[in-house]
Amino acid sequence: MIPPLQPGSPTHGPRRTTRREFLGAATVGAAFGWAGCNAAPRFTGAIVGPDRALGHRLRDRDLPPPESSERHDVVILGGGIAGLAAARSLALRGLRDVVLLELEPETGGNSRSGINAVSAHPWGAHYLPLPGAQANEVRQLLAELGVVTGFDAQARPIYREEYLCHDPAERLFVHGRWQEGLIPQLGLDPGERDQVSAFLQRMEAFRHQSGADGRPAFAIPVDRSSQDPMLLDLDRITMARWMDREGFQAAPLRRYVNYCCRDDFGAGIDRVSAWAGIHYFAARSGVAANAPTHSVLTWPEGNGWLAARLREPVPAGQIRSGHAVFGIRHDDRGAEIDVFDAAKNRSLRIECRALIAAIPRFVYRRVHGLPPDPHLHYPPWMVANLTLDSRPESRGMPLCWDNVIDGSDGLGYVDAGHQSLFPHPRRTVLTYYRPLDSADPATARAEALKADWSHWCDLTLDDLSVAHPDLRRRIEHLDVQVWGHGMIAPAPGFIWGHRPAALTQREGVVYFAHSDMSGISLFEEAYTRGLHAADAVFQQLQTTA
Amino acid sequence: MNDRASRLLLLGSVFVIATCGLVYELIAGTIASYLLGDSVTQFSTVIGVYLSAMGAGSWLSKFIDRREGWIFVQVQLLIGLVGGGSAALLFLLFPVVSSFRVPLYGLIFLVGMLVGLEIPLLLRLLKDRIEFKDLVARVFTFDYIGALLASLLFPLVLVPHLGLVRSSFLFGMLNVAVGLMSSRLLIPPGPQRRLLSVSGFLLLGGLLAGFIASERLMAWSERSAYTDTVLYAKSSPYQRIVLTRNGADLRLHLNGNLQFSARDEYRYHEALVHPGLARLPEARSVLVLGGGDGLAVREILRYPSVDRVTLVDLDGDMTRLFRTQPLLTRLNGDSLNHPKVSVVNADAFTWYATNRQRFDFVVADFPDPSNFSLGKLYTTTFFQRVRSSLEPGGALVVQCTSPYVARKTFWCVNQTLRASGFNRTAPYHLYVPSFGEWGFILASDQPMEAPLRLPTGLRYLTGTTAPSLFEFPPDMDAVPVEVHRLNNQMLVRYFEEEWAQYVH
Predict the structure, then answer these.
(1) Residue B383's closest chain A neighbor by CA?
(2) Rounded Cα distance, A200 and A307, in Å
(3) Under CATH, which number does the domain B3-224 receive?
(4) Which residues of A touch B502 (CB under 8 A)?
(5) Residue A230's CB: how many other CB atoms inside 10 A?
(6) Which fold has domain A65-115+304-376+491-544?
(7) What is the pLDDT of residue B256?
(8) Domain with CATH 3.50.50.60 in chain A
(9) Which chain B residue is nearest to residue A166, measuring alpha carbons?
(10) How far is B154 from chain A (nearest CA, A)?
(11) Interface pTM, i.e. ipTM
(12) How do residues A376-409 score in pLDDT, each as one tens digit?
């Protein structure tokens, strides 16, 4: 814990005047904070992101019939991580006749990012844990991208340190001040403290546990986890039920675990399965020569950095954004898709020998004319990017990468300036995350799509002002993005019940690749599935050529 | 004025005395917490001293046999003076006294004693006008309500809107005003009352002046934090630059931290530059990171073989100052205007992102790693960039704070340089009177075996003293430490821990 006021030396170190300067700053800050509450917003901003009009035309099938046709070897639907991974893999193998169709103006999916004069910043996924032993594909990718620069004598990867999350990584606002780390420490009674450490020990034990089949209990990718029924049983109950059963009742602990589940799945401990909840803690087992396990890789633009690297080897002409697919037909020899080109306001038909459907399964089902699958839940999210003219003041631990407010409905914010080696001395961009999980997904989505910009500003500032009364007057610009369907939420019985049978990997020449097939929306899942779909397509083309 | 009104007014004065007294106590407690830290101890001792002083005041009241009214009013005025000026006085005294607790507790005791004196005096003044049980009930009711008011006003209104210094002056004026009013009730017209009125109004004027000038008073106290004359003070976008003078001595402070004293800076800068550069006879190009004062560049320009010096300093205000002020260009030998020297104002990391030049010698003269932003300039990632910009056989020297005060910090830089790929590191140190024991580390890929060829005109280093710099006595010798990386910032954590211990 670094105290905010640094007593120092009469020489190079900071000296006593800091306390007086702090006093002045605190007094002025309090006065401004007071006045700021009632001030009208002095900042600009808008709701940005998904092309809702196009999405709705697609949903209502209000699109013109195809007027021309094309033939290609491979069509990839969706330019998220899975689609980009497939496109990259095919490009690196030398396949030329590939087209990737993306609904939005930009590829990247949940890893999309933005950039302004102050900093690049994420709009969704913003970090990648060090990949563990099972994530071969991702470890290989990181070596190819130069994120891993070599290996030490024990064969542990050496990561490029500017991509490892810089210190200090995380802090929690609790009882009116910031503490270092997200695990609650301030103001716990001894009983609560014991439960927190017992819980963490339990998770650590799960991390090292193997099932009867010798595979790790919890792995990334999910399908490489043990199939031991004793472990899979954990998927039948909610995380809250499991914590009840194990006697983990302490309120600060439950708030922490609830935060973790909402952060990773967009749903809290009473909605996600215990298997998924434990997976969050027990599946991250990557080692490094120059960082401890549990370290993460991150960039100012979050996983937008990875999306951009995946896009690099893909020839520019292969990616067609602003294209809405509204019809899919396929047989054993090929597939035929109808697609609307928003820029040209006309539709065309594309025939292909193989199709990679790297889109969420609910979208595929809709386009393919199948009824909705009631087991697929994608809670809505809102993300705000706040451009600040100066960094907010803090009591306790100074600004970190990930900053969480205990007991809040939001998930706190990430500082885009944190990973910069040449940050702007004053300005920065904070990315605020909030799953909209107070109602069921459909209701929450309907409400979210109706809300205007000022509603989201109020929601964001009401939440963050608890920790930063001075935040409002520092904001220059505040953009909001609403994800109608965020990440898939692993309800009990989904990952090891419904999923394996319902979310097939291949139907004829259609190869599916999306993280919802894993039940957990992670970069590693999407990337691995995209890569394997590309492998299978390559195989098919080789054998039929 | 009728008796009832005068009784009410006197009881009202109890209310004001209680409110003001508690406000002074809270102000003292807050100032002590801010300046000394550990708010629990500060508030607890301030409250204890204040309450016991009230007891002492009450006890002393028994020695007052005559002229209670006269004394009551005088004490009121005195509380206004001492209490009203207390915040400003404490701030002004803090930087100049060696033991701040003496004036702190002295002031609190004085205010507490005076307030403690007032209540018994007032009881005696009113004892003939109100029945005893009513009197006691009313006096203490007003006393405690006043305390409640103060405790609410202080955090909600006074601190956020007025600040401590102005609050204290405001309540001082209130004390004096009530004193003046009670003098009209308690003291018959005459020279005595006139004397009290005159002194009261003078006091009121003084406190008002203090209230208005409190901003300037605070600024003056900042100036007096520097015992020397302030020649120049400016806030650049990055730091507060203050230049002071005392006789022949010039001193530069950045954010209150001494950067150099003209009296002994040659020791620091000779040690920074020559042990490395004097062993690089072929050195032609030199890079200085930080060091916007141009003093390291002055030393580098002593080598005729060096034909290019690049100085990268974040702060344009700093380099401008040291290029234009005659007092300063005389000190740095006008080094920053030398034709061999080019000055770039950029963050070192940012500059490295686009740099393609290579250097024979690099001088990293950054501020100490006192926060996480500065810490990034001492990481493996940064040192690797420096290393890749060195010509074969080139060397880097890093200023590394005090190996005596911050031993782990110093050796952590050494470990970090090793982990960054420098095969050879040579830590050394010397005594700089204005800094204390100070350390540097020279890092290179190959042993620096060329003989030391010191330039002429040095005032500290000689062929005999230079090798002794590399000897470390046991109390500064290497300790086991971790490598400082972007993802652990060990150095900042060591630095914080060690300097904190040194000060307390």
Answers:
(1) A161
(2) 33
(3) 1.20.1250
(4) 9, 13
(5) 10
(6) FAD/NAD(P)-binding domain (3.50.50)
(7) 76
(8) 65-115+304-376+491-544
(9) B487
(10) 12
(11) 0.76
(12) 999 999 999 999 999 998 888 999 999 999 999 9
Least confident of B147-156, B220-229, B403-412: B220-229
Q: Pick the catalytic residue: B264, B365, B368, B445?
A: B365
Q: A23: which chain B residues are within 8 Å (Cβ-Cβ)?
A: 31, 34-35, 164
Instruction: Answer whether residue A22 shows pLDDT above 80.
Output: no
Asked if A17's CB is within 8 angstroms of B222's CB, the reply is: yes
Please give the pLDDT value at position A10.
31
Q: How confident is the model at residue B95 (pLDDT cuts 50, 70, 90)?
A: low
Strands B229-235 and B240-246: antiparallel
Which of A7, A34, A166 is facing B160, going by the closest CB pair? A34
Identify the closest residue of chain A to B33 by CA–CA distance. Answer: A19
Q: What is the largest CA-CA distance in chain A?
A: 80
Single-letter amino acid code for the residue at A141: L
Question: What is the Cα–Cα distance from A273 to A489, expressed in whole angstroms?
Answer: 9
Q: Is-catalytic flag, B475?
A: no
B350 neighbourhood in chain A, CB within 8 Å = 421-422
Residue A155: what residue type?
A: A
A&B contacts, CB < 8 Å: 140
Both tokens of A44, joined, read: 């600009």
Is residue B140's pLDDT more than 70? Answer: yes
Burial code (b: 16+ CB inside 10 Å, e: under 16) for A329-344 equals: ebeeebbbbbbbebee
Chain A residues touching B496 at Cβ < 8 A? 2-3, 6
Hey, is A278 helix, strand or coil? helix
- The SS3 assignment for A507 reads strand
Strands A428-435 and A413-415: antiparallel
User: What backbone phi and psi angles, to 5 degrees, belong to A410?
Assistant: -90, 180
Query: B287: distance to nearest CA of chain A, Å?
Result: 19
Q: Parallel, antiparallel, or unpaired for β B257-261 and B285-290?
A: unpaired
- The shortest CB-CB distance from B502 to any of A2, A5, A9 is to A9
Is pLDDT above 90 for A246? yes
Residue B306 binned pLDDT confidence (cut-offs 50, 70, 90): very high
Which residue's entry shows tokens 């990557």?
Answer: A286
Question: Measuring CA to CA, which residue among B57, B53, B63, B73 is closest to residue B10?
Answer: B73
- Looking at beta carbons, which residues of chain A come within 8 Å of B349? 421-422
Instruction: Extract the runs of DSSP E, i.e. beta strands, from A136-281.
Output: 148-151, 157-159, 170-174, 177-180
- Per mean pLDDT, which range of A249-263, A421-435, B256-270, B279-293 is the poorest? A421-435
Calculate how close chain A gets to B52, using CA atoms only, in Å: 28
Contact A12 B503 (CB under 8 A): no
Instruction: Strand B285-290: give its sheet, edge to edge.
Output: B341-344, B308-312, B285-290, B359-365, B390-399, B436-444, B424-432
Interior CA angle at A27 toward A25 and A30, to 5°? 105
Residue B503 β-bridge partners: none
Give me the percent of chain A exceeding a pLDDT of 90: 83
Half-sphere exposure of B431 (CA within 13 A, CB side): 3
Cα–Cα distance, B343 to B348 (Å, whole number): 12
pLDDT bucket at B340, cuts 50 / 70 / 90: very high
Q: What CATH number is given for A128-297 in this structure?
A: 1.10.405.10
Range(s) within chain A of domains with CATH label 1.10.405.10 = 128-297
Higher pLDDT, residue B371 or B225: B371
Nearest residue to A29 (alpha-carbon basis) of A403, A387, A469: A469
At residue B311, does pLDDT exceed 90?
Answer: yes
CB contact under 8 A, B370 and A8: yes
Tokens of residue B382, six digits:
């940064």
Please name the fold of domain B262-503: Rossmann fold (3.40.50)
**In whole angstroms, how large is the CA radius of gyration of chain B?**
31
Q: In Å, how far is A523's CA from the nearest CA of chain B?
A: 22
Average pLDDT of span B474-499: 93
